[in-house]
Amino acid sequence: MKKEKSNDFKRIPKHIGIIPDGNRRWALKKKLQKHDGYHHGIKPGFLLYEQLIQYGVKEVTFYGFTKDNTKRPTLQTDAYVKACIAAVELLENRNANLLVIGNTKSNFFPDALRKYANKRVMFGKGLININFLINYDWNWDLSAAQNNDVFSKDFIKNIASKDIPKMDLIIRWGGHTRLSGFLPVQSVYSDFYVLKKCWPDFDKTDLLEALNWYQNCDVTLGG
User: What's the pTM?
Assistant: First the structure.
């Protein structure tokens, strides 16, 4: 595949959602322990970060870990929490506006990330908005607006993830064709692209493949 420049694409999504799945399956294929896969998912995130800036994407939301993920064995939960903390610490030396969204009242929310929770923090030149879902739960997200009518504009304005805009495109690695509770309000009209390869096997052709596919999506928003 030839190397596209940003002006080779007629349409660039403003906001892309990323579901980086398949870390444990990747580890097993490499004859490693399941928990080893999470650490290998950090580098792909920064390769993608650089690409998104190159193509002019304004915002990206990464699915870190969910409330349901905390049911996994302790060795695995410790590993993905450490990977999330390491990713944010590396991002501090880059150019991004970070927003961490998740249930901070839970013991599973890492103390090291509390200073970034539910507020946007600028690193460097702030070239791209990066949202990181940590200990996220869709029910927790929506219940923050439980005193508002679900059909009212006030409902959306009061959910926990209210500061994250709608997503134009969601890309999922690992082959599964499901959202797994990923921002149900913001994903309502998102186009959804699935890659069979596991997240640690990411390379730069993945984004190009998704963007090429996105060029032919019929965006009607129900109209």
Answer: 0.92
In angstroms, the CA 110 to CA 104 distance is 8
- Domain over 11-214 is classified CATH 3.40.1190.10: no
DSSP single-letter state for residue 113: G
pLDDT digits (tens, 9 = 90+) for 149-186: 666 778 888 999 999 999 999 999 999 999 999 999 99
Q: What are phi and psi of 117, to 5 degrees?
A: -75, 130
Q: Tens digit of pLDDT for each residue in 5-16?
A: 545 799 999 999
Distance separating alpha carbons of residues 155 and 65, to the nearest angstrom = 25
Name the residue among 74, 64, 68, 63 with its Cα closest to residue 34.
74
Beta-sheet strand order (sheet of 191-194):
120-123, 96-101, 129-136, 59-66, 15-19, 169-172, 191-194
Helical spans, DSSP H, in the chain: 23-29, 36-39, 42-54, 74-91, 138-143, 153-158, 205-214
Helix (H) or strand (E) holding 119: none
d(CA 150, CA 142): 9
User: What ranges do the domains of the chain cover?
Assistant: 11-214
Please state, in angstroms and rounded to a whole number, the distance separating the CA atoms of residues 189 and 106.
Answer: 30
